[in-house]
Amino acid sequence: MIRDDLARLAVKYLDNENLQSFMLNLDVILSNYNITQSKNEIVKYDGSQDDEAIRMFFVTKKIAGFSDKSVAFYSTVIKQFRKMINKPLGMITTNDVRLFLGKKQVYDHCSPTHLNNMRRILSSLFKWLTAENYIVKNPMLAVDYIKEPKRIKKAFSEIEVERLRENCLDIRDKALIEVLLSTGCRIGEVAGMNYEDVDFVNKQISVIGKGNKERIVYLNAKAIFELNRYIGVYEIESGPLFISKRGKKRLTIGGLSNIITQIGKRAKVNDCHPHRFRRTVATFALNRGMPIEQVQQLLGHEDIKTTTIYAKSDEQSLKEAHRKYVI
Which pLDDT does position 4 carry in this prediction? Predict the structure, then answer.
């Protein structure tokens, strides 16, 4: 008992009279507390806090500005991982993670890019769990990056761009194509555009990008012209910028992507999807001399390393440079 331990210590330094006074005051003080003796035994980790830890991890990500789409993707990967491994988080080993990624590759035929995305999510989770002292050791530290095949992702050629323009059947689709070619926006950013975001005087649009970060993108003459025509014909005065023909509802990412795919089929342009417009804007801008730092701002890239992907010369650009500079 703590009272007896203190008494044995005090008797070494106090005479009998002072000891009695000390013990009396000690009893008064101790009466205000409920004290139990600590047990020096190892508490077995059972993973009972894992669900709460995962919940707090997602709360942290949401506070950091992650979109609902990103949180949903993280959640899917983590649920798959926990279901397959079926261990408390604190008992997961490096080999467990390797086993999970290996099975996803063999049985689900996941590409190296998708495997690296899952690896990145698990690294984020276990790094956070370690920092927050939920677990002692981070099992991801020895899980290496998975080598991805290096493929040159081509932009549209100028001829392909013109063919796409010619195969727009609707004035709305023409406006969509020109906005994509002028701004280099992600298709999700285009889907979220509102009429009120467009500044026709300054030829710009305010968009919300990844991490709910706002940036300004710019409209060239063709985009301004087609947007004005489309807005007039569809009688848009407020709300969503790109809407369906029936019901005048906001077009979703899927709806906009389908429009782009159909235009590509009619134009006989292979691999026609929204992100290729973004790649085309970056490639054209860099080839025409725009500084890479400005291209980074235009595209809304957090890290300039992402922008440098577009700076790699394609075969045609290299051929033209060779003709120009090499004797």
Answer: 78
